[in-house]
Amino acid sequence: MSLTFTLDGKTVPFTEGQTILQAASAAGVFIPHLCYHPEFKPHGSCKLCTVKVNGRQTASCTMRAAPGMDVESETEEINAERRALTQMLFVEGNHFCPSCEKSGNCQLQATAYHLGMMSPHFDHFFPNRAVDASHPDVLLDFNRCILCSLCVRASRDVDGKNVFALSGRGIKTHLIVNAKSGRLADTDFALTDKAAQVCPVGVILQKRKGFAVPIGERKYDQAPISETVTEGK
Amino acid sequence: MALNEMHAEAVAGVVDRVVARYRRDPSCMVQILREVQEACDWISPEAIDRLQATLGVPRTKIEGVAGFYSFFYLQPRGKYRVLFSDNITDRMLGNQALIERLCNSLWVEPGKVSEDGLVTVDTTSCTGLCDQGPALLVNNRAIGRLTSDRIDQIAELIRGKVPVAEWPAEFFAIDDNIRRSDILLASELQPGDALRAARARAPSDGLMASNMRSWREGLPTGLGGPAALLDEIKRANLRGRGGAGFTTGLKWEACRNAPLKAGAQRIVVCNADEGEPGTFKDRVLLTRQADLVFEGMTAAAYAVGATRGFLYLRGEYRYLLDHLNGVLARRRAENLLGADILGIPGADFDIEIHLGAGAYVCGEESALIESLEGKRGTPRNRPPFPVTNGYLDQPTIVNNVETFAAAALIALNGGDWYAAIGTKHSAGTKLLSVSGDCARPGIYEYPFGVSVRQVLEDCGARDTQAVQVSGPSGICVAPAEFDRVIGFEDIPTAGAFTVFDTSRDMFEVARNYVHFFQHESCGFCTPCRVGTSLLKNLMDKLHNGCGSPYDFAEIEKLNQLLQAMSHCGLGHTACNPVLDTIAKFRPAYEQRMMQQDFTPAFDLDRALAEARQMTGRDDAAAHLSTEHGGAA
Amino acid sequence: MSEKKKLRVATTSLAGCFGCHMSLLDIDERLFTLLEHIDFDRSPLTDIKTVSPGTDIGIIEGGLCNAENVHVLREFRQNCRILIAMGACAVNGGLPAQRNHLPLTTILEEVYHTSPGLANGMIPNDPELPLPLNKVHPIHEVVKVDYFIPGCPPSGDAIWKVLTDLLAGREPELGHGLMHYD
Asked: Which of B550, B617, B624 has its CB closest to that of C125?
């Protein structure tokens, strides 16, 4: 007998061990997410993918699907909460889209569009964060970091390098690199690393490649993020 | 050479010694960092070089862990590191003036290193000395009952560069302040008696059956039926004393039934990371009844078939370490720990003590396990739960200090005896840490079912406006509710009982708690990391008299978001003090709100200060009022 | 369309570049349609210098970088029933806010004292000049803002969509293509 659960009233099949988010993606249903990436172990930190399972909020990227679960995702209540989370991420860092090379290809931006985020709503933190331009091929702009730890996981689990890690705690949590100097140039990071490919926002950027695609033709200009659900598969 | 600089060879020597003692095991990272810092005053880049080489782990891992815990310093912090406890009770006892006095006396700004590198003065979350505050930690040694005189003496000692070990012993005297004892605090258990009683209780046929099972499952043999002990724990209706109140018997049984992978073992962890502001009963239990706690852990090990145990002791209780290690050594000598306990072949269990390093979130069991494994104390995704996948992915039970102490008594006297104490739904007794506005702060042990009113009467509280039960993450009880009782069926608690009389401003109480949660948020999930900071800023805005009804509505919205979206209990409960005080002490908020719909997020006039200073202007146009923010 | 009282609309640019106003003009011939429904009050388009009390809609381009910006914003808020933040600078501080990681004192030093080619430079202190704020802020941090049109600048179509939604009594919404932050 095939296994199914209900997602916003629709029957969604799943296989043993699949999370709600994985099963939804396989069925072509978009659930907003930032720290989740199909190639990596779910992390569960951004909370954008929060759904209600049998009336209780939980992250759908870490919650395994179970037969008969009643899952709500696209409700006004949940989307309002998700919108507030994107607003929190926008005010926590310095996200100035007009000057960002990732604009148009940025998952945070596209997710905020999807959720109808018209303003950051909260008071800005305007944190003072550095830029690391030391590496010959890659620029690190920490102003845009949302602490999803995808680069941490990619470098550790795929590249076997541990170039990135999170340090600090609470609102002071920040990305660090594996060098005494704290500079990317002094690590063994390479442009060909998986970690160079996974940043959902504009922190890890290839130098001399910015703004390569004209406005109007960038990834999320062409289709909203909700229609790119099978990405990475 | 500045005070904090050690020769690289000396640092390397320290690191090598510490790393060797921890068998080059990176899962002991937190302990290794703590000991390196104790010897070197901070964790220098040179120390990290050496750790990286000797442990064979990347620098990012070391810096990631060190950066997480408040008590680890990646920058020089002075030979003397003074941390004032900044719980609301310390504030009520006047710690602010004392901090200022010490800073003035030592010519140092709070949070900054003095120019000569001698000292830093800063604040920290509640250090568990609420009944004898104001309190501070100096190089992880606790000093309570601070007065102006004592502060002056401390300043003198620091200026004279007297090593902390040579400071007057009476500074470090910590009182137990036991005001009411019941079965736990009055217990005169002879070490080993509870284990012997548990063994004797197993029926002989049960003993056989159990031993067959024990052998099959790798459980220790001979102590006569782990199952029989488990039955007693269940019959006792023992529930966890850390606040959540999970049924202990179920937890133990789930761990015992969890499949063991090859080479794995079951683990017993005692959670002594007593970080909830206002709670200090575990400190007293560990001081006075350490044998009871360790005996309970050993009994638990038999019940679940565990062979390794940890006591996770909060860093603030560092001064208990020698005492506790002494008790463990004695128990080993008495064959109550180690191999073949009580002479029973295969009954192996031992306990090691791990110290925390200033992170409240590590009181959450999965974060605690992460910390035990030498990682950042971030709560895990669940399921799986620790009972199946805990310490190093092995079946693990984590229980509170008081739970283990109670378990020892149940092993000794049986479940029926225990279940008869307290109420129908809450068996046994509860230790309350009473502090705040009362004549007799300290530890009170009551059978469950005692009313708030009774406790207030016993501790000599007058004109009480409110009691915060179970700390910031618990509930705020108003006078109309003083007949409510302590128990899982009414007011569950981890043990804090903080009393506020009518002179106190309940808004300020809530604001102190909001600051606490903001400081202790681990930063893993978005809603808690950012939400607690936003909440703190809004509460500060109200505190500064700049808040509006709009901000008040924002506070309520943030609270809902934290409750709905956070990763763990810290975020879920971070809004409790605010929601409770809004519900019960609304005027404390309303009197702070300006009569406008909206007020600016920041002080507009202050935002012009730099420009005024640079231009030398002070005319009317060089100022801005903070009014007129509202709608037309 | 039945005879309805025309709505009074005021606009201004604070710490902005007038690019959003250019976008407003970019609604092209639809301006004529718009003018059937609204009258412009204070605006760079009319050169009226003060906002009339009882104005229906105030549209703000730009964030707050100095004291004058704050005064103007407050005048708008006091006199407009509905206030709209138009464009990235009004919504989140935008380009001017990119100075926020630098202390204002450093900026003024650099600009008026230490820049090459400046001899005997001094920081202007004429009371006629507004003093700069130590940080640039989006307008919702100082007054209550009712609606936001993101974009740097928002397209003419996006502005048109929000205005027509409002005129029709709908909650303004920008779908894919109209909603952008750059």
From this structure: B617
Cα torsion for C43, C44, C49, C51, to the nearest 10°? 10
Determine the pLDDT at residue C5. 85
Burial of C60 (0-12, 13-18, 19+ CB in 10 A): buried
> What is the per-residue pLDDT across B523-557, written as a single tens digit (0 to 9) for each?
999 999 999 999 999 999 999 988 898 999 999 99
Helix (H, G, I), strand (E, B) or coil at B115: coil
At which residue do the structure tokens 């109007």 appear?
Answer: A216
Give residue B480's pLDDT band: very low, low, confident or very high (50, 70, 90). very high
Instruction: Pull the structure tokens for residue C119.
Output: 């001899």
Q: Quick check: B66 and A167 CB within 8 A?
A: yes
The chain-wide mean pLDDT, for chain B, equals 92
Rounded to whole angstroms, what are the CA distances from B52 to A187, A232, B63? Answer: 14, 35, 10
Closest CA to B431 of B304, B233, B292: B292
Residue A55 has pLDDT above 50, yes or no: yes
Element (DSSP H or E) covering residue B52 = helix B45-55
Dig out the tokens for A186 from the structure: 């002094």
Which of residues 504 through 523 in chain B touch C, CB cutoff 8 A? none
pTM for the predicted model, two decimal places: 0.94
Q: Do B601 and C137 touch (CB under 8 A)?
A: yes
pLDDT of residue B209: 44
**C133–B616: do the CB atoms touch at under 8 Å?**
no
Three-state SS at B476: strand
Contacts of B612 in chain C (CB under 8 A): 131
* SS3 state at C17: coil
Contact B615 C131 (CB under 8 A): yes
Residue ranges in C45-96 assigned as alpha helix (H): 67-79, 88-92
Reported ipTM: 0.97
pLDDT in tens, B13-47: 999 999 999 999 999 999 999 999 999 999 999 99
What's residue B632's pLDDT? 37
B615 to chain C, any CB pair closer than 8 A? The answer is yes
Look at residue A198 in the predicted model and tell me its pLDDT: 97
Q: In whole angstroms, give the CA distance from residue C39 to residue C9.
A: 6
- Among A52, A75, A119, A169, most B C-beta atoms within 10 A, so best to mutate, is A169
- Average pLDDT of the residues in B73-91: 96
> B421 with B447: CB under 8 angstroms?
yes
| pLDDT of amino acid A1 | 62
* Count of C-beta atoms within a 10 Å radius of residue B368: 28
CB neighbour class for B111 (10 Å; exposed up to 12, middle 13-18, buried from 19): exposed
Report pLDDT digits (tens) over B491-515: 999 999 999 999 999 999 999 999 9
**DSSP-derived secondary structure for B428-439:** SEEEEEEEESSS
A131 touching C, CB under 8 A? Answer: no
User: Is A65's Cβ below 8 Å from some Cβ in B?
Assistant: no
The minimal CB distance from C132 to the residues B550, B601, B611 is found for: B611
End-to-end CA distance of chain C: 36
Chain A residues 74-103 with CB within 8 Å of chain B: 81, 84-85, 88-89, 91-92
Residue A85, min C-alpha distance to chain B (Å): 6
Q: How many contiguous H segments (helices) and E segments (strands) does chain B have? A: 25, 14
The lowest-confidence range among B219-233, B277-291, B381-395 is: B219-233
pLDDT tens digits, one per residue of B583-609: 999 999 988 887 788 899 999 999 999
Note whether A99 contacts C95, CB cutoff 8 Å.
Answer: yes
Q: Nearest by CB to A88, which of B59, B524, B526?
A: B526
State which H helix or E strand residue B229 sits in: helix B226-235
Chain A residue at shortest CA distance from B519:
A170
Residues B600, C142: C-beta atoms closer than 8 Å: yes
Q: B614 CB near a chain C CB, below 8 Å?
A: yes
